[in-house]
Design brief:
The complex is a heterodimer of chains A (about 120) and B (about 120). Chain A has strands spanning about 5, 10-15, 20-25, 30-40, 45-50, 55-60, 65-75, 75-80, 90-95, 105, 110-115. Chain A has about 120 residues and is an all-beta fold. In chain A, strands 2, 4, 5, 6, 9, 10 and 11 form a 7-stranded mixed sheet that branches. A 4-stranded antiparallel sheet of chain A has the order 1-3-8-7, with no helix packed on it. In chain B, the strands form 3 sheets. In chain B, strands 2, 5, 6, 10, 11 and 12 form a 6-stranded mixed sheet that branches. Classes of the chains: A mainly beta (about 120), B mainly beta (about 120).
Chain lengths: ~120, ~120
């Protein structure tokens, strides 16, 4: 099956620092990657869609300067939370499509960000 | 815009019994896909089952089956012979070409399997 990895799985940082989260498709070429945010006991909220080689498309209300997304290759997308603050603490999950089923998304294991 | 409604915030079931998790959807697209995911406390999203809007037969994957009623716009998940390891959050989701295959999730149902 299609495998997506995320790194790091858990990160704690000080307020004001930037944090980069990597999302990799290990055994397929991901033409599209999605980034989600999930608050405790809540559903997944789509933040942005990124296609390889082009700028990410952000959902309404998501600050593009705050959450920088780069999809430099068909196997790697990165989400950088710039100048993180405690309210950015959340669970961030990526998914990738382009695998065996064209409309199916394969999810990474998630990254838990805690900003002190 | 697409929408998923899961009306059961929490459900309880006895081990070895079957349970149905409800999901209704709304979309203006003719072609769409419906998904169910399981999210244990570890946080990973585990794909369970998929139903295409043009699939005439209800999807089945092991102990999971999807009761797809297109006219009612419902896609309920049935878990047979529940196991303690089935305790988790369950999300129903929809996507379509019209939404660039972006998944729209419901609020989820927390399933607890009692021994």
């Amino acid at each position: 099956g299609a495998v997506v990895s995320q790194h790091p799985s858990r990160v704690i940082c000080k307020s004001g620092t930037s944090v980069k989260i990597e999302c990799r498709s290990l055994d397929f070429q991901a033409t599209t990657m999605f980034w989600y945010r999930q608050f405790p006991k809540k559903s997944l909220m789509l933040m942005a869609t990124s296609n390889e080689g082009s700028k990410a498309t952000y959902e309404q209300g998501v600050e593009k300067d705050k959450f920088l997304i780069n999809h430099a290759s068909l196997t790697l997308s990165t989400l950088t939370v710039t100048s993180a603050h405690p309210e950015d603490s959340s669970f961030y999950i990526c998914s990738a499509s382009g695998g065996p089923a064209y409309n199916e998304q394969f999810f990474g294991p998630g990254t838990r960000l805690t900003v002190l | 815009a697409q929408k998923i409604t899961q009306t059961q915030p929490g459900m309880f079931v006895q081990e070895k019994e079957a349970v149905t998790l409800d999901c209704t959807y709304d979309t203006s697209d003719q072609s769409y896909g419906l998904f169910w995911y399981k999210q244990p406390s570890s946080g990973e999203m585990i794909f369970l089952i998929y139903q295409g809007s043009y699939d005439e037969q209800n999807a089945t994957e092991g102990r999971y089956s999807l009761n797809f009623q297109k006219a009612r716009k419902s896609a309920n998940l049935v878990i047979s012979a529940s196991q303690l390891g089935d305790s988790a959050m369950y999300f129903c989701a929809i996507n379509s070409g019209g939404s660039n295959y972006k998944l729209t999730f419901g609020k989820g149902t927390l399933l607890t399997v009692n021994p």
